[in-house]
Design a protein that fits this description.
mainly beta; 7-stranded mixed beta sheet
């Protein structure tokens, strides 16, 4: 008698990817030859500004749960303009088996491309374990406006474990590479004076723009818990802490009016 081969383990959770390709249409606008989503990641075209094409990422089901692996991939061709946003906040929820969830974002911008990636806040729910990775690769003439907002817990509850990494290259050279871990299980000190200092909301606004080559931004402090850091890129990074998501958005919106578009 021969024994049956061992069963191949089936990955737990949902695997889904949303893919976007934006190209210049030759008439001063932007076309979307590729716009496809899977599972909880549904894409809808919206009205953009001027030559810009707008795309909204709509959650078709609750995600990410523990064990899920979601990904968003956006490629912006030379001369194209794309505004990418989410329709609502993203809630990181615990799964049944205790596995971490993953959410990957990959942004690729060719020469003279422009992308605004402005998602709504990511809420780390109690008991969840989420690992977020955002990677952006820019050609030298490209422009990027990127906002991240993270909230630890819903109203009246503590947050889950959140690990987040943002990596940006320009012309093949590193521009920014930073990592954050907070919540239960994160390295000690994440909530201390050198970390979040008791705040529940944290965020950043990254602006990469060739205009900063001629007029670089100056380092500055915006209120008590927000700072402006010029990057050698040319780019500027605004980081902020706040007691809640509303105050955080106010801080980042003010920074956007000053440094973004």
């Amino acid at each position: 008698m021969t024994s049956a081969p061992p069963a191949t383990p089936v990955p737990a959770g949902v695997r889904a990817t949303a893919r976007i390709r934006a190209t210049a249409d030759g008439r001063g606008g932007t076309a979307l030859p590729l716009l496809t989503g899977e599972g909880p990641l549904a894409l809808r075209r919206t009205r953009g500004e001027g030559a810009e094409a707008g795309v909204m990422l709509v959650g078709a089901m609750s995600a990410p749960l523990g064990g899920d692996h979601l990904a968003v991939e956006a490629d912006v061709g030379a001369g194209a303009r794309l505004a990418l946003a989410t329709a609502a906040a993203t809630l990181a929820l615990p799964g049944r088996g205790g596995e971490p969830a993953r959410y990957d974002v990959r942004l690729t911008l060719e020469g003279d491309a422009a992308l605004r990636w402005l998602p709504e806040p990511l809420v780390s729910v109690r008991g969840s374990d989420l690992r977020v990775r955002t990677r952006a690769e820019l050609a030298p003439g490209a422009r990027l406006l990127l906002r991240e907002e993270q909230v630890l817990g819903r109203a009246g509850e503590p947050g889950g474990l959140l690990r987040s990494r943002l990596t940006v290259t320009r012309g093949g050279r590193p521009l920014l590479d930073q990592e954050l871990a907070c919540g239960p299980g994160a390295p000690a000190g994440w909530d201390g004076p050198a970390g979040l200092a008791g705040h529940r909301s944290l965020g950043q606004l990254l602006v990469v723009d060739p205009a900063f080559e001629k007029a670089p931004a100056a380092a500055a402090v915006l209120g008590e818990f927000a700072a402006v850091t010029p990057l050698a890129g040319p780019a500027v990074l605004v980081t902020a802490l706040a007691p809640d998501a509303l105050r955080l958005r106010e801080l980042l919106d003010a920074a956007r009016r000053t440094y973004g578009w």
